[in-house]
Amino acid sequence: MRLAQHMAVASERVTATAIEATEFPDLSRSYRVMAVPKIVINDRVEFEGALPEAQFLDAVLRAVAPAGS
Amino acid sequence: MPILAARDQDAVRKEFQRIQGPVKLVVFSQELVAGDLCRQNEQLVREVAELDDRITVEVLNPQIDRERTEQYGVDQVPAIVVEGARDYGIRFFGVPHGYEFSNLIDAIIVASSGEPQLTEATKASLAGLTGDVHIKVFSTPT
To answer: What is the pLDDT of residues B67-126, one digit of tens each?
Structure first.
């Protein structure tokens, strides 16, 4: 969540939502959360575990890239 | 009984020395939906806010304060919005215990300054975003 929330402060286009998986089992099920932390960006790019800043940014950019690029 | 032990309070107070401006924590509580969790969440937020007078708390009930809840885009309780000079889009769904608690403290500090701790390269890339980015981070207390 740390990187996500700093990115939210950096850009008006970014929002960051932390979700406590055990308190929201339906939401966690619909996003197939098997391990935490699980990060889902624009319901399009997802990964498990903490990533270094550069790779996290790469995931963000992939989530907004035009389809097929 | 307080949620935060004395030594936790001391540690958070120390972190809060880095706060640079006012922060508002908007808490969403709905007794009928998740009474216990909403009470715990509200208590935890109030205990945190008591540690620094630059932090204020507002509690909204989604059923009563419908319009504002919708504006904040909150559709779950308990929830917390961390606002600094503007609403940066930082949300916590669920009681932020454990690891999420340190993220809440970090969110308060970064929202207070509006200055993210990211590399210049990351900031430049984010400045060039042409689409909206919604990041969800699922975690558990331990």
So the answer is: 999 999 999 999 999 999 999 999 999 999 988 999 999 999 999 999 999 999 999 999
Contact A16 B90 (CB under 8 A): yes
> Edge-to-edge strands of the sheet including B79-83?
A45-48, A38-41, B133-139, A14-20, B87-93, B79-83, B23-28, B55-60
ipTM of the complex: 0.96
pTM recorded for the entire structure = 0.96
CATH architecture of A2-64: 3-Layer(aba) Sandwich (3.40)
- CATH number for B6-127 (one of 3.40.1580.10, 3.40.30.10, 3.30.360.10, 1.10.357.10): it is 3.40.30.10
Q: Which of A6, A17, A40 sits opposite B118 (nearest CB)?
A: A6
What whole-number distance in Å separates Cα of residue B47 and Cα of residue B57?
10
User: What CA–CA distance (Å, rounded) separates B126 from A8?
Assistant: 9
Q: Touching check for A35 and chain B: CB below 8 Å?
A: no
